[in-house]
Amino acid sequence: MEPSQRAKTAIDAVAKPSPPGAATPEVPADTVVPKTRKDDVPPARQRRWFALRQPVGILGQIIAGMACLGLVFSLWWAATRGEMPEDRLVPYTALPSPVETFDSFHSLWFERALARNTLASLRRVALGFGLAAVVGVPVGILCGCFTWAAAFLAPLTIFGRNIPVAALVPLTFALFGIAEQQKVMFLFIACVAFVVIDTATAIADVSSRYIDTAYTLGASRWQIIRKVLIPLALPSVFNSLRLLFGLAFGYIMLAELVKFGSESGGLGDIIITSQRRGPREHIILVLLIIPIVALLVDRLLYWIQRQLFPHQYGSAGYLSIALGGLGRMVEALKSLIIRPTPLPTGSLRSKTATNPGAAGKSP
To answer: Cβ neighbours of residue 318 under 8 Å, at least 6 residues apart?
Structure first.
C-alpha cells in the first residue's frame, strides 16, 4: 500500500466510526496520522477571546475595560513616581502623580464648588442643545421630505458643519455678550447644523416602499409624513441626538472661557482658573470627571431610547406604554371638552328620526 493511501485509510478510521458489528479497519503500524491544524477546528472550539467577532459577554467586557484602566494608571504611576524632581520621568509641572491628583479632590469639591459648576455646565448644555433639537429636528424633517428644502438650506448646513467651533466664540461674544445667553447660543449654533443633517438623513433612509404602500391605501402627503416617515425615522433621530449630546458637552469647555459676574463658571472655568493659578491637579481631575458625567448622561439617554422604542431594541417599553396612555387620556379629555357638532334639522338623521320608514325608501 502506498504511503498516501495508508494515510487516507488512517484518517478515515479516525474520522468515521465503524457501525455496530462491523470490523474495525486495520491501520498499518508505520502510518503517521497528520495532526489536525488549528484552522480546521470549528470556531466554537477555538479560543473564545481570539475568535473573530466572538462576543465576550458583559463580564468579559468589564474585565477588558478594567485591564485597560489598570494599564493606563500603571503607566501614569511609573512616569510620575519619585519624591525628587530628578527622579521622575515626567516633571510635576507637566503631570502630577495619581496620589497627588486624587489627594486634591477635597479642595476641588469645596473650594472650587465642583458640584455647582458641574450642574451649571449640564444646564447650559441642556438648554443650548435642546434649542438646537427643537429647531433642527423639524427643519431636518422638512429637508428629508422635500429635496428643494434641502437644496435651499445646503449652504447654511455645510457652513455650520465645517466651520471651526473655536471661531464661533468671538462671534457669539459680539452678538450676545458674555453672559449666560452667549453660552447657550454658542452651543445652539455649533450643534444645529448637525441635527438638521442627521434628521434629514434618517428621513431619507426610510424605504420608498412604505411611501408607495401608503399612497396605495389612499393616504395624503401630510398623513405619510406624520404617520409613516416620522415614526419610522424617529429611532434613528433619537440615537443621533444622543450621540450629538456628548459632542455638545465637549463644546461647553470653549463657551465657558469667560465668567460673567458671580455666575457659576462651569467645568471650563475650573480648568482655566487652575491653569492660571493652580493647582494643576484640578485640571487632571476635571478631565477625568467630564467623561464620567458624559457617560452617565449617555446611559440615561440610552435607557430612555430603549424604553421609547421597544420594537427596535426589544425592551419592556415603559415610556412607550406611558406615552400611549397619556395620549388616550388626552383624547378622552378632548372628547369631553369638545362636543360633536349636531347635524342640521333637515339632515338625513333628523328625517329618519321623525319618519323611520323613510330610511328604507330610495329617492
So the answer is: 307
Residue type, 117: N
Q: Looking at residue 362, what is its pLDDT?
A: 44
Phi, psi of 31 (to 5 degrees): -85, 135
- Model confidence at 352: pLDDT above 50: no
CB atoms within 10 A of CB 137: 23
- Which runs of consecutive H residues, i.e. helices, occur in 225-347? 230-255, 266-277, 281-308, 310-313, 318-337
Angle between helix axes 230-255 and 168-176 (nearest 10 degrees) is: 90
> Which CATH fold would you assign to the domain 108-326?
MetI-like fold (1.10.3720)
Per-residue model confidence as pLDDT tens digits over 132-171 = 999 999 999 999 999 999 999 999 999 988 988 888 888 8
pTM exceeding 0.85: no
- Spatial contact of 222 and 99, defined as CB atoms under 8 Å apart: no
- Whole-angstrom distance, CA of residue 135 vs CA of residue 241: 13
First to last CA, the chain: 104
> Which grid cell is 53?
467577532
Per-domain residue ranges of the chain: 3-16+23-50, 57-96, 108-326
Q: Is 190 exposed, middle or buried (0-12, 13-18, 19+ CB in 10 A)?
A: buried
pLDDT-derived band at 179 (thresholds 50, 70, 90) equals confident
Q: Which residues contact 290 (CB under 8 A, 6 or more apart)?
A: 249, 250, 253, 267
**Amino acid (1-letter code) at residue 238:** F
Which one-letter amino acid corresponds to residue 283?
I
